[in-house]
Amino acid sequence: MVTVWFGLVVLCWVLFFVLEGFDFGIGLLAPIVGRDDHERGAVVRTVGPFWDGNEVWLVAAIGVTFAAFPDWYAALLSGLYLPMAALLLLLAVRGVALEFRGKGDGPRWRRRCDAALALGSAGIVLLWGAVLGVLTHGLALGADGQVTGSGPARSTAPLLSWAALAGAGTALFAALLIGAMFLALRTTGPVHERARRLGIALATGGAAAGVVIGFGAGSRAVLAAAVLCVGIAMLARSGQVALAFAGTALSIGGAVVAVFSAHGDVVLRSTLDPAWSLTMAGAAASGSALRLISVVGVVVLPGVLVYQAFSYWVFRRRVASERVPS
Fold first, then answer.
1. Rounded to an integer, what distance in angstroms lies between the CA atom of residue 47 and that of residue 212?
2. Which class for 278: exposed (0-12), middle (13-18), buried (19 or more C-beta within 10 A)?
3. What gap in Å lies between CA 122 and CA 4, rounded to an integer?
């Protein structure tokens, strides 16, 4: 039961980072691939029907983590409370920018909303990437399972580690790549072509950087990521953007799984003493609690998946970015 619920926790996080990943990427890319107000509006409309539904997976991931692994939830949230609070504020900025973009009159209002959307998306991506990096590196857990230290440094110092900085940079690259591929898949006209070319350039650059870093660090995982980037670039170059998007989504999902399973059955590593690390069994709720939430999960999670798949089917048509003569 513990292993099953750990798998469900990871699944919720994978769905959040993949689905919200292209939302964040599009927020970053709107001022870049959209050359005027009409084109930027077309970019934003590609995620208009989906972004708030995609955000549900954040609620699901945090809720499932809290219910199934309360000690893990407590250590993470208490150890990273300032980054988490900043993430909530940035998510609110992103939501307000998307919702209010079409409420005001004039291009100046929309440009301000686009700037808020881009800055909010950039901040969210960098912070989430840093948090994932912290998960691979670990936190200063004491023997009682609590993060040691006091004051703001307790939750900000972990973000300054090399693992956190590498995670932030990787997340920014991944969001831009999946955002470009989603735009190429969901638009027609000039935005489609610019997004496709940008996706090719990003994947090619990522492959080159992956080869250098992979051989320099002797990391097979980084070299495998470089090979995937080559495949994504080739698919996008040949016009198979749907496959390129699917490959990018699978790569991001695989990276998230790798982060959560990096230490085997240890869900949160202690940087002070490995014996103080939190394990799956040690952080899990009681057997009766897991059985109770299993009943709820069997009803709720499939319903969310079916509803979201239906919404993507309904809004499957591409968004035109070219101007239609009147």
1. 35
2. buried
3. 33
Output the pTM of the full model.
0.92
**CA–CA distance, 249 with 255 (Å, rounded to integer):** 10
Residue pair 14/257 in contact (Cβ under 8 Å)? The answer is yes
Query: Which amino acid appears at position 302 of this protein?
Result: P
Pairwise CA distance, residues 45 & 55, whole Å: 16
pLDDT in tens, 231-269: 999 999 999 999 999 999 999 999 999 999 988 889 999
Nearest-angstrom CA–CA distance, 179 and 185: 10
Task: State the helix-helix crossing angle for 2-33 and 241-260, rounded to 10 degrees.
Answer: 130
Give dist(CA 30, CA 36) in Å, integer.
10
